[in-house]
Please model this.
Amino acid sequence: MSGLLVTARWVALRNLRHAFTNPALLVPSILFPLVFLLAFAGGLSSLQDTPGFDFRSGYTSFQFVFILLQSAAFGGIFTGLGVAADFESKFARRLLLAAPGRGGILLGYVAAGIVRFGFTVAMVTAVGLIAGMEVDGTAPQFAALVALAMVANAAATLYSLGYCLRVQSVAAAPAMQTPIFILLFLAPVYVPLDALDGWIHAVASWNPLTALLEAGRGFISGDPDESGVAFGLAAALVALMAVWAVRGLRRAEAGDV
Amino acid sequence: MRQPAIVFPTIVFPLVLLAVNAPGLEEATRLPGFPTDSYLDFAIAVCFLQGALFALTTAGTELAHDVETGFLSRLSLTPLRSVALLLGQVAGAVTIGILGTILYITVGLIAGVSVSAGAGGVLVLLALSLLVCLSFAAIGALMGLRTGSGEAVQAAFPLMFVLFFLSSINLPRDLIEVDWFRTIATWNPISYLVEAFRSLIISGWDGGALWRGFAVALGILVLAALGARSALLSRMERT
Model:
C-alpha cells in the first residue's frame, strides 16, 4: 500500500512541476476556458430572451457550469496525455520498472489532474464573478458543483490514461478528444434541455453529461435537482474509466501495444 | 494529400462542429430580428473560415519544417526565386482549403441550406473563400518563416481560435446584448469575413457586407504576404 502511495505522490509532484513550470501547458489550460466563458456568456447572452429559457441566475451562471465541466473533461485529457509524452521520451518504461506500486502511476496522474483543475476552477470562477456571474446557491451548493466537476475530471483523466497507455503516442490526442467534444456539445449547452427540439433533444436526454450539467446548474441557482443521480453517474463513470485505465496499464506492462 | 490521416480530420472537423452546434443554437432563430429561421443557414459560414484556419496551420507548419530541417538553407544555394517557394507552399494549403469549401457547400446543400444569392453567389463564395484561404495561409507562412518552428505555428492556433470566438460567428452583431463583446466583435476582422460569407447564403446580394469582407481579406493578404516575403528574404540571405 505504501508503495502505491509513494509512487502516486512522486508521479503527481512530477506532473504538477512540469505543468506549472511549462507555459505551453499552463496557458492553454487557463486561456481556453476563459475564452469559452467570455465568448459564450458574452456573445450568446441574448439566448436568455428566447421563449422557454427560465434560468434565474442569468446566462453567465448558466454557461459557467458548462465551461466548468468542459474544463474538467479537457483538463483530464491533457493530464493523461502526459503519460503518452512519457512513453515517447522512454521515461514511462523506466517508471514502470522502478515504481514500487504501478497502480500509483494512475493515482498520481488523477491527483495531479485534480490539483491542476482546481487552479483552473479558481481562475474561471474569478473571471466569471468579475463578468457578473450570479451565484444564488449557498457555499456548500457551490462546493458541491466544484466537487461534481472534480469527479468528472477524475473520470476524464482515467479515460485519457487508458487511451494513452494503449497508443503511447501524443499524436493520438485529436482522436481521443473528438468523442468527448461531441459528447459535451450533445448536451444542453446553450439553452435548457426543455428548450431543445427534435433529435438534439432526444440525444441530450440520454446523454449522461446532461445530468451533470443540469445538477450543476441547479447548484449554482440554489435549486438543486437530481444531484444524487448526477453524483451517482459521475461515480459510475469514474469506476468504468478506472477499469479501462487499469487494463491499459496491464497492457503497457505486458508491452502489448 | 498523401497524408489522408492529417488532411481528412482537418477538413471534416468543421462539419462535425456544425452538426453538433447548429441544433443546439436553433433556439437563437426565435430571437426578434434574427435574419433567418434556420440556424444551419447562419452557421455554415463558420465552416469556410475554419477551413481557412487549417490553411494557416498547414502552410505555416510546412514552411517552419523546411526551416527546421535546413531545407530552406540548402535552397538558398540554388537559383530558385524565393517567391516561387512561398507560392508553392501557400498554393498547397489553399488547395486543401478550397476542397474543404466545396465539400462544405455540397454537404450544406444536401442538409437543406439554400444559397439566397443563387449559383452566381456560390461562385462569389468560392472566390471569397479562395482569397480568405490565401490570406490565412500567408499569415501561416509569415509565422512559420519568422519563428522557424512548427510548434510555434501550432501555438498560434489558440490565438486564432480566440479571434474566432470573439466575433459575430454565433450571433449577428446587432443581437449581441453585452456591450464590450459587441465592441470587440465590431473591431474584429473575423466578423466581416464571416458576415460576407453569410450574406450570400442568407440575404442574397448584400454589397456592403461583400465589399467589407473582400477588403478585409485583401488587406490581410497584402500585409501578411509582404511580411512573409521579407521574412523569407532574411532566411535565404547568403552570408
Remarks:
- Residues 39-68 of chain B form the longest helix (30 residues).
